[in-house]
Specification:
The protein is mainly α. The radius of gyration is 21 Å and the shape is globular. The structure holds phenylalanine. The site of phenylalanine (PHE) has 15 residues, from helix 1, helix 2, helix 10 and helix 14.
């Protein structure tokens, strides 16, 4: 059977950018920026993106397209029977973990969509919002609603993944990503013109390094991986559906640029509003759910825009959840010659079950902590700050020392047919900069050295 694949350059870009752009940009980036003091954190984040993110992105694309296979077998095809395939195993495992807690938050977005459509959300005043939102996510006891929404998210994701690459992933991403961008720009303008917005701009762009901790540096690195969908073979898997004529280096740059631009735009939407309304920037995972409705509340046609925006965030999160699910689905389908449908249903169910404790940790399991973290925080921390960077480290080592820069550059230049001016910078970053950088940050911030 011929492998499914993308049908156009824009389709690939939309799907890969669709994977990268999601709750990471609109929910996670603002809230961890808020918790880590603002501009200084963003600066470290941008350095991580530039020096580590872009090279790892290209490496994943190169491995996937060269091997034309899934997360685990790709390593096996390039270096048969070597331990490198452990990188893929780690990726598949990480996909289970990330999707399990990601669907909690995506569920909250869908819960809000439900309320926006019925007009309930726009009648809540900014002062009532924290309580209102708190009631929605307080899962457990008699409130099973958040779990229900999480289920809805998993079902939608499963359906699209069953439909496959061209008819599922590509079709939806192409349409929706451009609308999201347009709406963010409108919102950013509204937020910037609120009275008192200036303090938010300062928070975002005027670095104060005294507010940055060592853990903050690890957060920035972890978030660079999380936001770009790197370190768990998602981009590798999408790369395996890319044809041999595409230009991978420019693709890597475009995905990274789009993702970073959207995150910064989301910051420009959120923080001026946070300061204008006297909210606290470090309120945690509920930040956007409180601030966004506040911005809309103060806008003409606010309830309409609010609904549109929530729907777009919902969609942006789905283009990410499908890329997360595609990693294990493509592996188990190809490796065990099972039907895509059966595998998808099975894996979706497992991930849904695994995600329930994360959702409950905002309610009835709120007091249960492991290593001082709630179940949700533990999942997020382990996957984003440890597993993804370790995955990125292994991918860089594989290219730099296992397979060789020369082979990678050959693939990246379509066998020498296109120019790749930054090939030696890519080689240097992949062989030395990324592995050493990740290694040092991991050891230092976890207290090992
Ligand atoms: N990058 C996605 C986001 O920002 C999340 C994601 C992480 C997707 C890892 C795939 C792999 O929302």
């Amino acid at each position: 059977m011929k492998r499914d694949g993308f049908s156009s350059r824009f389709g690939i870009l939309a799907a890969a950018a669709g994977s990268a752009i999601g709750l990471g940009n609109i929910w996670r980036f603002p809230y961890i920026t808020g918790e880590n003091g603002g501009a200084a954190f963003i600066l470290v984040y941008l350095v991580c993106i530039f020096l580590i993110g872009i090279p790892v992105m290209l490496s994943e694309l190169v491995i996937g397209r060269n091997a034309q296979s899934n997360a685990i077998s790709s390593f096996d095809k390039i270096k048969p029977n070597s331990p490198w395939k452990f990188t893929g195993v780690l990726g598949v495992l990480t996909a289970f973990i990330i999707l399990s807690f990601y669907s909690t938050i995506a569920g909250w977005v869908f819960a809000y969509i439900g309320r926006a459509v019925t007009g309930q959300l726009s009648s809540i005043s900014p002062a009532e919002l924290p309580q209102y939102f708190g009631n929605i996510i307080n899962a457990g006891g008699s409130n099973l609603e958040p779990i229900l929404w999480q289920f809805v998210v998993m079902v939608i994701t499963g359906f699209i993944v069953i439909a496959g690459i061209k008819k599922g992933v590509e079709k939806y991403s192409k349409l929706l990503m451009p609308i999201l961008l347009g709406l963010l720009v409108v919102l950013a303008i509204r937020s910037l013109t609120l009275e008192g917005a200036y303090k938010g701009v300062e928070f975002l762009f005027k670095p104060d390094f005294s507010s940055l901790s060592v853990e903050g540096v690890l957060e920035a690195l972890g978030h660079a991986f999380f936001s770009l969908s790197l370190g768990m073979c998602t981009i590798l898997t999408y790369g395996s559906y890319v044809n041999k004529k595409e230009r991978l280096p420019s693709l890597a740059l475009q995905i990274t640029f789009a993702d970073t631009a959207i995150a910064l735009l989301a910051g420009i939407v959120i923080f001026p509003a946070v300061f204008a309304y006297g909210l606290s920037p470090d309120s945690g995972p509920d930040l956007i759910f409180i601030t966004l409705p506040t911005v809309f509340y103060s806008m003409p046609f606010g309830s309409f825009f609010q609904m549109l925006f929530l729907v777009l965030i919902g969609i942006a999160s789905i283009t990410s959840t499908i890329s997360l699910l595609e990693v294990p689905v493509s592996y188990f389908t190809e490796e065990f010659k099972l039907s895509r449908k059966k595998v998808t249903i099975l894996i979706t169910s497992i991930i849904f079950l695994l995600g329930i404790p994360s959702t409950l940790s905002f309610g009835s399991l709120g007091d249960v902590t492991i290593f001082g973290k709630t179940f949700f925080d533990l999942m997020d921390f382990t996957a984003s700050n440890i597993l993804l960077p370790v995955g990125g480290l292994l991918i860089s080592l594989f290219i730099g020392w296992g397979w060789g820069i020369r082979n990678a550059v050959k693939e990246a230049t379509n066998d020498g047919n296109i120019e790749f001016k930054l090939a030696s910078a890519y080689g240097f970053a992949t062989k030395y900069l990324a592995p050493i950088g990740i290694f040092v940050i991991l050891l230092y911030s976890t207290g090992v050295i």
